[in-house]
Amino acid sequence: MRPRVEVKVGRRGRALEIDGTFASWYEPGLPITGSVWDALAAPLLALPPARRRDVLVLGLGGGSVARVVRALAPQARIVGVEMSGEVLRAARRWLELDALDVEVVRADARVYLQRARRRYDLVIEDLFVGRGRAVHKPDWLPDPGLEWVRRRLAPGGLLVSNTIDEAAPMAAALARHFRGLISIEVEDYDNRVLVAGGRQLTARGLRAALGADPILGATLPRLKLRTLAGQGRRRARAGR
Question: pTM of whole model > 0.85?
Fold first, then answer.
């Protein structure tokens, strides 16, 4: 069944809805959204400096996350996987997707992950199925899908997952695969962004990077970051 795609144009910006779910936001002239999509891209700042980054977005939608990534890392090679042609057409017409220089792959993310060979410094998983407030992860996440995603990470890479009701089981699954895990909550949103990586990944470190960044520093006051597993959590326990 084809999704029902609608773009609502207001004075501030353009909202893309898929089957009644708020899926993308674009405010012309601004690279950031001040909301969930900023949080999804923010972990890019937790990676060590590099000349170029390879970034994979699973569930490209209207390109909101890719736009923030492009602003943070102008030289990044961004691959966006999106299954719906209707969504891509709306994104190109109303949200200026083509201006982001994203390599767009129209495919089911599950199929892409099983066939892909390229590795990425950052994988952003923003996949949902269903309608309206009943959206949820596809049935192959967290398992076995997280293992497929993990294989696409370059050494030292990070996995970012956008969750709603499935935050707890997704966090538990990520903790089995990764030593470092933090969560990001966004003011006025039910989403919880989970970031998984190496032992050195901590909320304190990412918060400091965000505060020093000229682009995402404005969004930081709306974000609540917590270390769920890794170096920061062990230190906290040792101090009790």
Answer: yes
